[in-house]
Amino acid sequence: MGLGWFEITCRLLLAMLIGGLIGWEREIEGKPAGLRTLILVSLGAAIYVVGAVGAAMAAGEDIQAVRAMSGIAGGVGFLGAGLILQQRGEVRLLTTAAAVWGSAAVGMTIGLGQYYTGVLGGVLVFVTLRFIDMLEKQVIKQQKRRARARREAAGHERKDAHDGE
């Protein structure tokens, strides 16, 4: 017996929802892989895994989810590489490529019925994208201010030393 329609529906809709959360963050940041892309990545990964689980259950075989997951990871890696190489040799959009990879991982875990892991993972990806960037910018601002203050202080010390001669 395979998965029931309700279970399949829940898994796929939840993968869409969490992929959408991640995609929404990329969309408002103006990144090329946004809402629809990350919904499709997460949903596509979930469809592959749910399909593999359902087929294995229907055939009475062991579930080979690891094989499906490795195939998805490879395919998503190809998508991410395409995003990165798109920028004419510059290493750009690495975070967006990582978001695509994270969205696929969310879809895979939810597709396997690991709801808690998938939702928590998706929320952590979102928090990383949305709030770590703000924290990172604040830390960099503070470091730049401190470096500027040190340079100015060093400049004043040299001027004072020069004036004393």
Summed up, what is this model?
With 165 residues, the protein is mainly α.
Could you characterize the architecture of this molecule?
The protein is elongated, with a radius of gyration of 23 Å. 83% of the residues lie in helices and 0% in strands. It has helices at residues 5-28, 35-59, 65-85, 94-111, 115-163. The mean pLDDT is 83. The chain is mostly helical and 165 residues long. It has one domain.
Task: Calculate the terminal CA-CA distance, rounded to whole Å.
Answer: 92 Å
Helical content (DSSP H or I, runs of 4+): over 70%
> What portion of the residues fall into strands of 2 or more residues?
under 5%
**Which stretches are low in confidence, meaning pLDDT under 50 for 5 or more residues running?**
none
Please give the radius of gyration in angstroms: 23 Å
- Categorize the overall geometry: elongated
Total number of β-strand segments?
Answer: 0
The average pLDDT is 83
Structural class: mainly alpha
Major β-sheet profile? none
The secondary-structure element order is HHHHH
Query: How many domains would you count in the coordinates?
Result: 1
**What's the helix count?**
5
Key traits:
single chain; 165 residues; mainly alpha; 5 helices; 0% strand
Give the helix/strand layout:
Layout: H1 5-28, H2 35-59, H3 65-85, H4 94-111, H5 115-163
Helix pairs in contact: 1-2, 1-4, 1-5, 2-3, 2-4, 3-4, 4-5
